[in-house]
Amino acid sequence: MEIEQVSAERREGGSGRKIVHVDMDAFYASVEQRDDAGLRGRPVVVAWKGRRSVVCAASYEARRFGVRSAMPAVTAERLCPEAIFVPPDFTRYKAVSRAVREIFERHTDLVEPLSLDEAYLDVTENKLGLATATRVAKMIREQIREELNLTASAGVAPNKFLAKIASDWKKPDGLFVIQPHEVQGFLMPLPVGRIPGVGKVTEERMKSVGIATVGDLHAMDHPTLEQHFGRYGRRLYELARGVDENPVVANRSSKSLSAEDTFEKDIPLAETEPLVRRLAEKVWLASRQNARMARTVVLKLKTKEFSTLTRSLTPLAMPTSAEMLGDVAVFLCSRVEFGPEQLFRLVGVGLSTSRWRRRRGRRCLGSL
């Protein structure tokens, strides 16, 4: 099916926009399998071996054994003894990412990269004059396959929130479309864990107050959701109605870049270092492509009680490697004044072009 033209008036699930979210399938691992025929059809794990290393990517053959990104490499090796470990080649991945970006820009200038392997595109108006967003998404996927010998999954919807869900619906190598008039029927039966940003901890917290599906969320009023989830409650209220007014912003990363992960279970600060370093690698790669002048390093943490805090540092000289960026981010962890019993549900690392005020011993609400 193809997205229908709708009015620009704000209504449940409708924004007048046509948004495509493109997500490359197992990107780093797929590039390795493409370039080495001996790896095709085999469980490939992109990671350095070692106690402190984490998985950057896993092929779908490895995922069948439970191997996932951000998992410690030693855990991946235990789950899949036959896995082939390949050290990451970020220079090559970045070059492929640029080629994918060039394909996007044939269709629209409104491209908002989230990382090397995914991006939002606003194709309400597209350069080739294709009649629908669905046709644009189909052509992009065909061009990626034919020119780069890789596959991508895409979601088409009236806004970014829905497009993100849709791109994951038929992975790998899939295309899924959510029509404006289908939004509520699609959302209501979904488990709340399908909402981007709702991890296992939040999902369990929702279940404790009787929320298991988006329909359950939709049935709760705004004040009740804010009572249980603070400011995030307002966002949940809107998402349950398919409403997301955030536009696609091209070149957002020219001012700042960040990456974050929500843990499967709450962990103490001392256990976050491998994930902090992995996020630093991800941000560093993106910064080489998009934000060369950024040098203020920002650490973001969210406690199990949903309090958010940030720490930042502007070094005298720009970080010159992912390792150096990781070292600064890990140092910022030491400036978090919580006891060892405090648990955290999310960590983020960012680079910003602006100098942040130094905040010592003080919580700071807000995102990177």
TrEMBL record:
List, separated by semicolons, the cofactors it needs: Mg(2+)
Q: Can you cite an annotated GO cellular component? A: cytosol
Principal cellular location given in the protein's record: cytoplasm
Site (Substrate discrimination) location in chain: 28
Keyword annotations of the record: Cytoplasm, DNA damage, DNA repair, DNA replication, DNA-binding, DNA-directed DNA polymerase, Magnesium, Metal-binding, Mutator protein, Nucleotidyltransferase, Transferase
Q: Which GO terms describe its molecular function?
A: damaged DNA binding; DNA-directed DNA polymerase activity; magnesium ion binding
Residue intervals of the UmuC domain: 19-199
The note on cofactor binding and number reads:
Binds 2 magnesium ions per subunit.
* Record's subunit section: Monomer.
Q: What is this protein called?
A: DNA polymerase IV
This chain's source organism reads: Granulicella tundricola (strain ATCC BAA-1859 / DSM 23138 / MP5ACTX9)
Its gene name is dinB
